[in-house]
């Protein structure tokens, strides 16, 4: 099969790219800290902690708490966080405005779509289903789906394979340097989502940046023409 005859595949990060999940992530973070007798935390402080998976988020929360968190087992705290977060992960989270319009345009243009996230795959599917987005995606790769997580290219390449795609006909969109790095490692064009949670310097290395979600379909078509 010629590469040009394969469907084009648009792969998306989830938190901070498709979904504004910070409100639930921060609410769960505060509940975790309060459980351990620590002070709650604001969403603005949680924002830069997001993007490297739940275990790293919890470690950053405990580090933020300082000496008062000494002696707390990060593994136990991570398990507690996920047990609380999963059933509450769509209480406050919502797709970013324009997400479904963008996905509909991509589908109309013949694209297939998939999600590659560092969030555990069961939690990712739960959120996508709860927010009515699940049916847009033919594959979901999570932080526990493969041998490594982003920024390693393994999960992106694995998600592309799950979707029946080819890296030469795929793009990656995300708001974190992990998304850019995994795309570079997989030799896949990267669109940096400037509307997300990542700092501006995380765009370094991306093929192109997008100021709004409404630009994605156009940029995708420019990167990989039909």
Automatic annotation (TrEMBL):
Instruction: List the pathway annotation.
Output: Organic acid metabolism; glycolate biosynthesis; glycolate from 2-phosphoglycolate: step 1/1
Which is a GO BP term held by this UniProt record?
Answer: DNA repair
Per UniProt, the enzyme's principal EC class comes to hydrolase
Give any Gene Ontology cellular component.
Answer: cytosol
Spell out the Gene3D superfamilies in the cross-references. HAD superfamily/HAD-like (3.40.50.1000), Putative phosphatase, domain 2 (1.10.150.240)
The source's domain of life comes to Bacteria
Entry EC number(s): 3.1.3.18
Show the GO MF annotations.
phosphoglycolate phosphatase activity
Q: Which reaction does it catalyse?
A: 2-phosphoglycolate + H2O = glycolate + phosphate
- Family recorded in the similarity comment: Belongs to the HAD-like hydrolase superfamily. CbbY/CbbZ/Gph/YieH family.
**This chain belongs to which protein, by name?**
phosphoglycolate phosphatase
**Organism of origin:** Komagataeibacter rhaeticus
